[in-house]
């Protein structure tokens, strides 16, 4: 989730902390897994690094054309999710990977994406522009499935009441009526400024874009593309994302017992693919004051070891019939 004014020169959340974690120098190659408005990529390029940027949003790729021309040939962009970085770049091809999860301010502030409940727009939410839209999901899914999405992805206590109201009032085509319905069902506490629709919109967006599944696949892809000594930095914006990142880094650094769902017990776990990760960092008070959207950000980073990626070891183990 990026901060600053709309445009390609805006500053992403925790820019200084991410750049420090990645420890870039001239001639290295960085993967910006969530290119967005290009904030991390620009900082890396200015530090002398070459950058491969990934973004599922074709509109972000189009907006970046002037920046690509400015830094050619040191900036390459791929209109794919960061889960595909290993497919595009190959193993051990990068010195650093940055993942700024969520969505950019450009996407959030443009009603055409359907991400915001502040202005009425198409009930879309698809960052790629393809596949099932938010309207498709809400207008056809059973009440129980909608409730599960709101509860598990939005941690919404009133998930069942909201789902019941959605099914009773559908179809929905734009964000305004959906937000208004949620506000009728869930009254905002007097001691908070959070809009009652926040949790539900987050949950639907995560479901439509398969954000948690993409994150799990993207972390494994980052593990594959990083060279020994390379660094991975991930900025997350809610507890569901941070939980996945924290567990992945703890697991890959040998801080968790073997036999998790990421690595079967039959595969030896005595060669961590990451060194013990650094402690989580939070944005400064000054940054939060200047950009309230940064208040929920959490940065976690770790350094790649020379051990094979766990995914490679699992596949090798399967070929051997173990």
Briefly say what this structure is.
With 322 residues, the protein is α/β, with parallel strands linked by helices.
Secondary structure elements and pairings:
Blueprint: H1 15-22, E1 29-32, H2 39-46, E2 50-54, H3 58-63, H4 65-71, E3 75-78, H5 85-89, E4 94-100, H6 105-109, H7 134-140, H8 143-154, H9 159-169, H10 175-185, H11 198-209, H12 211-225, E5 226-236, H13 239-252, H14 285-290, E6 298-303, H15 310-319
Parallel strand pairs: 1-2, 1-4, 2-3, 4-5
Antiparallel strand pairs: 5-6
CATH names the topology of the largest domain as: Rossmann fold
**CATH H-level homologous superfamily name of the largest domain:** Vaccinia Virus protein VP39
- Indicate the percent of residues in helices: 40-55%
Main pleated sheet: 6 strands, mixed
Order of helix and strand elements from N to C terminus: HEHEHHEHEHHHHHHHEHHEH
Give me the number of helical elements: 15
Report what the structure shows:
It is a single chain. This protein has helices at 15-22, 39-46, 58-63, 65-71, 85-89, 105-109, 134-140, 143-154, 159-169, 175-185, 198-209, 211-225, 239-252, 285-290, 310-319, and strands spanning 29-32, 50-54, 75-78, 94-100, 226-236, 298-303. With 322 residues, the protein is α/β, with parallel strands linked by helices. The protein has two domains: 15-106 and 211-319, Rossmann fold, CATH 3.40.50; 116-209, Putative methyltransferase TM0872, insert domain (DNA polymerase, domain 1, Orthogonal Bundle). It has a six-stranded mixed sheet. Helix 2 links the parallel strand 1 (29-32) and strand 2. The protein starts with 14 loop residues before the first helix and ends with a helix. Mean pLDDT is 88; it is low at 1-9 and 315-320.
């Amino acid at each position: 989730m990026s901060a600053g004014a709309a445009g390609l020169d805006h500053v992403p959340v925790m820019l200084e902390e991410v750049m420090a974690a990645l420890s870039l120098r001239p001639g290295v190659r960085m993967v910006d897994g969530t290119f967005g408005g290009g904030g991390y990529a620009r900082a890396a390029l200015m530090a002398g690094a070459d950058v491969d940027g990934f973004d599922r949003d074709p509109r972000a790729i189009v907006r970046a054309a002037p920046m690509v021309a400015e830094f050619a040939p040191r900036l390459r962009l791929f209109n794919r999710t960061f889960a595909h970085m290993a497919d595009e770049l190959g193993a051990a091809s990068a010195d650093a990977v940055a993942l700024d999860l969520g969505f950019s301010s450009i996407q959030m502030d443009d009603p055409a994406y359907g991400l915001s409940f502040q202005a009425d727009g198409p009930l879309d939410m698809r960052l790629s522009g393809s596949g099932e839209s938010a309207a498709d999901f809400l207008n056809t899914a059973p009440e129980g499935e909608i409730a599960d999405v709101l509860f598990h992805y939005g941690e919404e206590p009133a998930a069942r009441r909201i789902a019941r109201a959605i099914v009773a009032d559908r179809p929905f085509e734009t964000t305004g009526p959906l937000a208004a319905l949620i506000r009728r069902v869930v009254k905002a506490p007097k001691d908070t400024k959070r809009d009652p629709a926040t949790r539900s919109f987050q949950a639907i967006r995560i479901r439509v874009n398969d954000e948690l599944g993409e994150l799990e696949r993207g972390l494994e892809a980052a593990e594959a593309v990083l060279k020994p000594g390379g660094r991975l930095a991930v900025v997350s914006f809610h507890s569901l994302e941070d939980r996945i990142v924290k567990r992945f880094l703890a697991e890959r650094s040998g801080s968790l017992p073997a036999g998790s769902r990421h690595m079967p017990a039959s595969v030896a776990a005595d060669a961590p693919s990451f060194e013990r990760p650094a402690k989580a960092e939070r944005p400064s008070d000054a940054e939060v004051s200047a950009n309230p959207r940064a208040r929920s950000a959490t940065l976690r980073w770790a350094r790649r070891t020379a051990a094979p990626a766990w995914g490679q070891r699992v596949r090798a183990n399967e070929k051997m019939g173990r």
